[in-house]
């Protein structure tokens, strides 16, 4: 007879699998904007939508909070993150500094095989249908992500924890949101190639400068977006 106080390893594994599955689905929906920024997260509604019990769902929500995709609001509950203009610019200022440093270190530390693999990543990006159509840039994560590869290639574990763990999905959310700006995909692709060439030449100073300029260009793109939104917004009281 099974002791009821002993955890059932099969049930435990199933719960972990369910939690991982729903975590990935909600994460993807938030990053793609299918769950709108600022939306309140309803546990009963998500449990019904994904056919999952509250335990694994709460574990998934907790992980999404750790990735800064959800924020806990006192007396309200969890909401999808929605950064203000100022907060978003601050995030990009952090990226500009830290990814610039990562790029300099990558030029010093990446081996030839890693550099060759990074060129293959850019070849893959160029073949993407959305990129060819000029409507977006390739947005797969992890090893398919140019920025992720460089950060990992820096060999600095603290940088990797900050940029590839704690802030990574939050940054991806906004990179995806602004990647469809006209002309930006091809500009970004050309900038990536120049950064990679500097890394391949082992010119850490140039690689850092080019990465900072690259992220700075993205930051200016965001600033223009907010300025255009303000210009087109109707005055209060106008129907």
Q: How would you sum up the major sheet?
A: 2 strands, antiparallel
Q: What Rg is obtained from the alpha carbons, in whole angstroms?
A: 21 Å
Low-pLDDT segments, ≥5 res:
1-12
| Range of helix content | 55-70%
Mean pLDDT metric: 86
**From the helix content, strand content and strand pairing, which structural class follows?**
mainly alpha
Shape, principal axes of CA atoms: globular
Separation of termini? 71 Å
Instruction: Tell me what portion of residues adopts beta-strand conformation.
Output: under 5%
Number of separate helices: 11
**Strand adjacency order, main sheet:** 1-2
What does this molecule look like?
- The structure is a single chain.
- This protein has 239 residues and is mainly α.
- Helices cover 69% and strands 3% of the residues.
- The protein is built from eleven helices and two strands.
- A two-stranded antiparallel ribbon has the order 1-2.
- β1 and β2 form a beta hairpin.
- The longest helix has 29 residues, at 204-232.
- It is globular and about 55 Å long.
- The chain starts with 8 loop residues before the first helix and ends in a 7-residue tail after the last helix.
């Amino acid at each position: 007879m099974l002791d009821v106080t002993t955890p059932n390893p099969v049930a435990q594994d199933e719960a972990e699998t369910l939690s991982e599955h729903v975590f990935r689905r909600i994460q993807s929906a938030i990053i793609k904007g299918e769950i709108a920024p600022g939306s309140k997260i309803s546990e009963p509604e998500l449990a019904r939508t994904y056919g999952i019990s509250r335990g694994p769902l709460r574990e998934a929500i907790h992980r999404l909070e750790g990735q800064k995709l959800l924020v806990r609001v006192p007396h309200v509950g969890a909401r999808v993150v929605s950064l203000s203009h100022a907060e978003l610019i601050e995030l990009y200022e952090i990226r500009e500094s830290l990814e610039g440093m990562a790029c300099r270190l990558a030029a010093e530390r990446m081996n030839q095989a890693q550099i060759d693999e990074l060129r293959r990543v850019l070849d893959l990006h160029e073949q993407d249908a959305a990129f060819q159509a000029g409507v977006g840039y390739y947005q797969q994560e992890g090893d398919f992500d140019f920025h992720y590869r460089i950060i990992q290639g820096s060999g600095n574990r603290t940088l990797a924890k900050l940029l590839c763990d704690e802030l990574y999905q939050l940054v991806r959310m906004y990179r995806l949101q602004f990647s469809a700006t006209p002309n930006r995909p091809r500009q970004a692709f050309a900038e990536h190639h120049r950064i990679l060439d500097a890394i391949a030449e082992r010119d850490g100073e140039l690689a850092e400068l080019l990465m900072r300029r690259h992220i700075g260009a993205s930051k200016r793109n965001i600033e223009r977006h907010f300025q255009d939104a303000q210009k087109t917004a109707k005055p209060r009281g106008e129907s």
